[in-house]
Amino acid sequence: MSPRSRAAAAKAAYEADASVSFGNACEIEVASERGGAVVSFAPDPKGGPECLWFSLGIRRVRPGRGARGETLKLVLRNLGNVLGGSDAAALRPVFRSDGGDWERSEPGRALRLPDGRTDVAWTLAAPRRRLDFALCYPYGRGDERSLVAGAEGFYSADSIGVSQSARPLVRLASSYGEEKSQRPGLYLIARQHSGETPGSWVLDGLLMRLAELCRGPGGRPPVVWAAPLANIDGVEQGFYGKDNFPYDLNRAWGSPPMRHETLVIQRDMRRWAARCKPFAAIDFHAPGGCETDGMYAFCVSRREVPAALRRASAQLASRVGRALGGYASGKFRRTADYKSRWETPGFAAFAASALRVRAFTIETPYALCGSILMTRERYREAGARIAEALAAAMPGVCSRPVHPRS
User: Fold this and answer.
1) Contact residues for 401 (Cβ-Cβ < 8 A; gap 6+)
2) Cβ partners under 8 Å of residue 2, min gap 6
3) Contact yes or no for 181/275 (Cβ under 8 A)
4) Distances in Å between the alpha carbon of 82 and those of 20, 39, 334?
5) CATH 2.60.40.3120 given to domain 3-134
6) CA-CA distance, 268 to 275, in Å (whole number)?
7) Contact 279/186 with Cβ under 8 angstroms?
8) Which of 161, 265, 162, 244 is nearest to 195 (CA)?
9) Which pTM does this prediction carry?
10) 136 near 93, Cβ under 8 Å?
C-alpha cells in the first residue's frame, strides 16, 4: 500500500480483508470519499492461472451515520483479468449487511481508466457494523448439512476418503444399493472448480426434489450418490480452482488419476456402479463470470465413448434442457470445444468411457439466466426441474407419475 493509501485508510471508517469463510481478495485498499468510503480489491488467483471467485468482509471501525445516507463503494480492479470478464453490468455479486440475509447487488458500473483498463464499481448503503461481499451465494459444509437435515433421513453422509490436504471428502447417498442390483442409479458431483457455487445450489435443489418425489410407498427410489463439495480444499481456502496447479480437479480423471480426490471419487463411482444399474452421471459447474445466456450442458464427445452412448447422453441432456424451460440457454446442448490447458479427461468423459453410463456437465451462470435474476430459490428450482426430468426418465422410481415442467 502506498503512503497516500495508508493515509486514506487511516481516515476511513472501515477495515476490509478476506478473513471470512471461503475468503478471497487481495490488493485491498480502503479510502474515504465524500458521503462514505471506497473499498478496492482484486480476486486472488491463489496460485492458478485464472481468477474469478471473491469473498471479503468490511468492518466499521469508527462511528458513522450508517443507514442515514452514508454509502460504501466496492471496486473490483482489472475486470479484464477475470475469467469471462466482458461486461460489468452482468456482474451481480451478493452482499449481506450486519448479519442479515444475502441480497443481490445492482448491476456493476464500468470505470474506464486512462490507460484502457476497466474496473467495476457497486455502491451500497453503508452498514452499521459489517458488510460481507461475494461473487455469488457461498455454499459450504453447513449448507451440505442443512440439505441432509432437510431431506429428513433420505440421505446419509459418509466420508469416502480425504482431500490432498486431509479434509474429509463427503458423499451423500439415498441408498447403498446391493451387488448386481437393477435399481437405477445417479452419480452427481459439484464444485470441482471450488468457486463455482451455482453448481452446488442447483445440485442442492435437485437432491431435495428427488427426496420429495421418491419418498413414500409404491416407488423404487434410485440409488443416488452425490459429492456436493468435490474440491473441498479449494472451497475452504477460497480458491477459484479452475486450472489450478498442480492439476485442475476436472482434468485429473485419466488412468491413473492425477489428484487424490479424483482417485477417491473414481473408486466410489465403481462401487456405486456395482450396486445399481447406472443411469446417469452429471457434473455441476458455472461458466465465465459475465455469461448470461442461461444454463447449458456440455455433452461427451470423446472417441472412446461408443456412439450409441454419446447419443443417449445427448438425448437425456435435451430432456433436461426442455424441463429447465426459461432457465435454459437457447443453445442448451453443446460440446466443450474451447481450448483447454489440459489433455486429460474430465468427470463426464471418465463416467462414459470407464463406466458406460450417460454423462454430461451442466453450467449455471453466476447471476442471470437471460432475464431471470438467479437467487438461491431460483437455483434450487432449476435443480428441482432437473430432478423431475431425471425421475420421469427412470420409470417406476417414484410413488406417483412425474410430469416435468417446461
Assistant:
1) none
2) none
3) yes
4) 21, 18, 23
5) yes
6) 11
7) yes
8) 244
9) 0.94
10) yes
**pLDDT tens across 206-263, in order?**
999 999 998 877 778 899 999 999 999 999 999 999 988 888 999 999 989 999 999 9
Residues 6+ positions from 134 with CB-CB distance below 8 Å:
22, 54, 55, 56, 93, 94, 95
- Bridge partners (DSSP) of residue 16 are 58
Residue with cell 459418509: 158
Task: Residue 206: name the closest of 184, 190, 191 by CA.
Answer: 190
Closest to 310 (Cα-Cα) out of 366, 365, 348, 256: 348
- Angle formed by the axes of helices 141-150 and 197-214, to 10°? 10
- Residue by residue, DSSP assigns 21-79 as TT-B-EEEEEEEETTEEEEEEE---TTSS-B---EEEEEE-S---TTTT-EEEEEE--G
Q: Could you tell me which of 295, 306, 282 has the C-alpha nearest to residue 359?
A: 282
Express each pLDDT in 301-337 by its tens digit.
877 789 999 999 999 999 999 999 999 999 999 987 6
Q: What is the pLDDT, as a whole number, of residue 279?
A: 97
CB-based contacts of 49: which residues, under 8 Å, 6+ apart? 243, 245, 341
Q: In this structure, what C-alpha cell is assigned to residue 264?
A: 477417491
Q: What is the grid cell recorded at 374?
A: 438467479
Q: Provide the residue ranges of all domains of the chain, joining segments of one domain with +.
A: 3-134, 141-392
Asked if 243 and 49 count as a contact pair (C-beta separation under 8 A), the reply is yes
Q: What pLDDT sits at residue 8?
A: 47
Letter string b/e over residues 110-147, b meaning 16 or more CB atoms within 10 A of that residue's CB: eeeeeeeebbbebbbbbbbeebbbbbbbbbbbebbeeb
Q: What is the mean pLDDT of residues 285-294?
A: 97
Decide: 360 and 315 in contact? Cβ < 8 Å.
no
Strand partners, 252: none
**Mean pLDDT across the stretch 285-298?**
97
CATH code of the region 141-392: 3.40.630.10
**Dist. CA 322–CA 138, nearest whole Å:** 28
Can you tell me the distance from the alpha carbon of 167 to that of 231, in angstroms, rounded to the nearest whole number? 10
CA-based nearest residue to 402, from 143, 218, 151: 218
Cα 154 from chain centroid? 23
Contact indicator for 233, 223 with CB cutoff of 8 Å: no
Measure the CA–CA gap between 54 and 387, rounded to whole angstroms: 30
